[in-house]
Amino acid sequence: MSYAQDAVIGDTQNKAISLAKPKKIRCYGTIVNGDTIPTVYLKPFYVIEKRTFKNSFQANRYGRLVRNVKKTYPYAKIAGKKMKDYNAMIKGKTEAEKKKLMAKAEKELVGQFEKDIKNLTFTQGHILLKLIDRETGNSSYQLIKDMRGNLSASLWQSLARVFSTDLKAKYDPDGDDKQVEEIVLLIERGEI
Q1: Which residues are CB-neighbours of 63 under 8 A, at least 6 positions away?
Q2: Do residues 140 and 133 lie in contact, with contact meaning Cβ atoms separated by under 8 Å?
Q3: Could you tell me if residue 127 is inside a domain?
Q4: Which of 48, 92, 114, 116 has the fewest Cβ atoms within 10 Å of its own Cβ atom?
Q5: Distance CA 2, CA 24 (A)
Q6: Which domain, by its residues, includes 106?
Q7: Is 181 within the bounds of a domain?
Q8: pTM of the predicted model, to two decimals?
Q9: Containing H/E element for 103?
Q10: Which residue from 185, 190, 75 is spatially nearest to 130, judged by alpha carbons?
Q11: What is the tens place of the pLDDT at every residue in 64-83?
């Protein structure tokens, strides 16, 4: 680190004034031809163009999607945080201890959110499953399998297939779930 003009300067009354040292900022550096160039990594910036719709049906459909994502996203955030906490707790535990902790986790989640989740519409439930996958990195099928076992996961997958839903489907921010991802980014930035 270098300091420019790190000397004592006198004023008109012959009093010494010491210049304050600048605050130190740590950052990465890249060496190019013997020169060290500071490298600062910035958060990604997303540009989402203003939506235009061909007709009122499309506008209403997008408005419903926004409303549904805004309603379900907080639950997905909480579920993601709780799953990270529980995954940290079960590291290094035996299978019996893991099952006991996961049963406790399930009971806690059901007790906290059962009433709210039961009041979700089918579409909101589908969006919630996708958002939980986004937050945890695991499909709903995998989460059920971890918490309840293979048999229960298969049963719920069969039931979901009856209602044209796939619990094994992964969240795809660049494909099927692009609009949902855009809405989530707008929510995180506080724009909607």
Answers
A1: none
A2: yes
A3: yes
A4: 92
A5: 10
A6: 56-188
A7: yes
A8: 0.67
A9: helix 95-118
A10: 75
A11: 999 999 999 998 898 888 88
**Residue 181: other Cβ atoms inside 10 A:** 20
Rounded to 5°, angle at Cα 58 from 53 and 62: 95
**Domain tally for the chain?**
1
Q: Answer for the pair 170, 133: CB distance below 8 angstroms, yes or no.
A: yes
In the numeric block, the tokens 């270098």 are attached to 2
How far CA 153 is from CA of 83, 130, 141, 148, 173, in Å, comes to 17, 16, 6, 7, 25
Domain assignment present for 28? no
CB 116 within 8 A of CB 71: no
At residue 144, the pLDDT reads: 77
How confident is the model over 2-54, as pLDDT tens digits? 555 444 555 555 555 556 676 777 788 888 898 888 888 887 777 777 788 89
